[in-house]
Amino acid sequence: MSEQLHKEQWLCFQIEDETYAHPVNQVREILDYLSPVPVPGSQSCVEGVLNVRGEIVTIVSSKHLLGLSQTSRDSEHIIVLETPSGLVGVTVDEVEKISLLANDDMMPVDRSHSTSPVKGTINHDNQLLILTDFERCINELESYE
């Protein structure tokens, strides 16, 4: 029982052939993919904006943030995150499940000179999960404006 007290909930999702995870406490909701309205002059990672129940949500491409080539539109879901600057939706291919992960088991990556959202990796149930921090990445992108 005490082992579960030191674990946090992470939302697991697929982007291409890899499984990623993001802290659940930053996730507001998960939407089926809708084509956002393009915003002229926005950064290349921004696909556009959506009106979600009266709130404007900026939609960003997870593939662009991760440095992956975006050959076609195969995202099926949008994970809406609550950030200090407002709601941001991140496109993903498939949402899988919520897992309990221990921060002590995480292998961090060096992020001192990177705007990558990759925070680290963790081996969970014989599967490598890539841990993300899209909020940090989005905050750094906004500071370049």
What percent of the residues sit in helical stretches (DSSP H or I)? 10-25%
- The total of beta strands comes to 11
Q: What radius of gyration results from the CA coordinates?
A: 15 Å
- Class computed from helices, strands and strand pairing: mainly beta
CATH architecture: Beta Barrel
Q: Figure out the total of helices.
A: 3
CATH superfamily: CheA-289, Domain 4
Q: Which CATH class applies here?
A: Mainly Beta
Q: What do the pLDDT scores average to?
A: 86
Question: Would you mind describing this structure in some detail?
Answer:
The protein is mostly beta strands. It has one domain: OB fold (Dihydrolipoamide Acetyltransferase, E2P), CATH 2.40.50. It has 3 helices and 11 strands; from the N terminus they run αβββββαββββββα. The protein has helices spanning 2-5, 62-66, 134-143; strands spanning 7-15, 18-23, 27-32, 46-52, 55-61, 77-83, 86-92, 94-102, 107-108, 118-124, 127-132. Strands 8-1-2-11-10-9 form a 6-stranded mixed β-sheet. Strands 3-6-7-5-4 form a 5-stranded mixed β-sheet. A hairpin with a 2-residue loop joins β1 (7-15) and β2. The longest helix has 10 residues, at 134-143.
In short:
The chain has three helices and eleven strands; from the N terminus they run αβββββαββββββα. With 145 residues, it is mostly beta strands. The strands form two sheets. A six-stranded mixed beta sheet has the order 8-1-2-11-10-9. Strands 3-6-7-5-4 form a five-stranded mixed beta sheet.
Secondary structure layout plus pairing:
Blueprint: H1 2-5, E1 7-15, E2 18-23, E3 27-32, E4 46-52, E5 55-61, H2 62-66, E6 77-83, E7 86-92, E8 94-102, E9 107-108, E10 118-124, E11 127-132, H3 134-143
Parallel strand pairs: 2-11, 5-7
Antiparallel strand pairs: 1-2, 1-8, 3-6, 4-5, 6-7, 9-10, 10-11
